[in-house]
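Supplementary Text 2. Reproducibility record for the structural model of the 55-residue chain.

All settings were left at their defaults, and a single model was retained for analysis rather than an ensemble. We include the record here because the model underlies the residue-level annotations in Supplementary Table 4.
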Amino acid sequence: MTPKNKEKHFIVTDMEFDEEGLVLSCCIEAIMSKRTIRLNWHDLKDTRHWAQGWK
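Retained model, structure tokens:
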């Protein structure tokens, strides 16, 4: 929730699926810097680190 390197807004740019079509991981991209991060998609549900929407 605390921006680092002025990176505050991200979009999901890629998703990795298993054989059954379940999401394994995703890749997010910072809007300002274009830096990409691959992470477990469950991590995006952790409200201590991420908030959905443009606030």
